[in-house]
Amino acid sequence: MKGRGALLALSLVMLVAAKPPMRYQPDPSSVIAAEIAFNRLAQQKGQWTAFRETAADDAVMFVPQRVVAKDWLKKQADPPASVSWSPSIVYVSCDGLLAASTGNWKRPDGSVGYFTTLWRRDKKGRWQWILDHGDRLAIERDAPEFLTGKVATCKRGARPEGPPPAKGEAPPVPQDDSLIWSADVATDGSRRVTVRMWNGTGYDVVIDDKVGAPS
């Protein structure tokens, strides 16, 4: 769920300590572009159609319990008019494969709220969302003057499992844990979504969303 439609200037805050072994550069602007395209698709083709077309196969949503997004979305008809949204800040892992965005949304009836979306690159390098959630607010969050992108400091990954690569093959990229997340749902439907980013010596909590039980 989501909200503000204006595109603001992008201010990147790069926190990379060393160049990691990776296929993709950790580029926050590409995540912002994916969010803008996602919102545009919702306005042009329909809200749930856009969610279906951009979701990874294992993506999850909360209704309010956790569900496999594509299973739930295939039963949903698009509303007459879509919610609109825009990110305020984006966080990207050091290896450029995982990202989190958060910002404001607004419905056609004027109600407002916030969203958080987790993104992952697929095998072709395209961003697909793997978690989307948000909540309604009485008053919209203050929008930043500039969209901001932050990149995690590189963190040594785990040793790859399996035999060494054959001669002439590129070695597998170690798992990167520079951006990690958790999503917990209580039996009453309340939930908490947290994103942490590696700063070189420890993790900073950069997103900590708490949604109360539905009334």
From TrEMBL:
Domain of life according to the entry: Bacteria
InterPro entries xrefs: NTF2-like_dom_sf
Keywords, comma-separated and alphabetical: Signal
Record keyword Signal present: yes
Signal peptide: 1-18
The keyword Signal appears for this protein: yes
Coiled-coil ranges per UniProt: none
Pro residues composition bias: residue spans: 161-174
Region described as Disordered: 155-177
Parts of the chain that traverse the membrane: none
Descriptive protein name: DUF4440 domain-containing protein
Organism: Sphingobium yanoikuyae
Lineage: Bacteria, Pseudomonadati, Pseudomonadota, Alphaproteobacteria, Sphingomonadales
